[in-house]
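thread: overnight batch results

M.L. [08:02]
morning all. the overnight job finished for the chain we discussed friday. pasting input first so we're all looking at the same thing
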Amino acid sequence: MTYVVTDNCIRCKYMDCVEVCPVDCFHELEAMLVIDPEACIDCGVCEPECPVEAIQRDGEDALGPWIAFAAEQAAHAPVITRKGEPPADAAKWEGRPGKFALVFGRSL
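M.L. [08:03]
and the structure it wrote out:
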């Protein structure tokens, strides 16, 4: 099992989750964070820290594409261990549907 960062993180990227992770499994992309599914120990401390509820626990088939995306991206993105500044327009993006396709130009 692993935890997964989903669509709600895109362009919000609040990063409250990063500092509580005991195994440094978060990786930073330009538009969002991802959790390395190989490094995640399924402790769950990150999930309640996300103010936009972008982190979900694996266990649903619908999260499979997100896990594959995270694994692919984590292999190339830097590990992040400290909370940074969210984008200036983060509030504008909160709850907006279809962000993945808008930002990445493809669907999962």
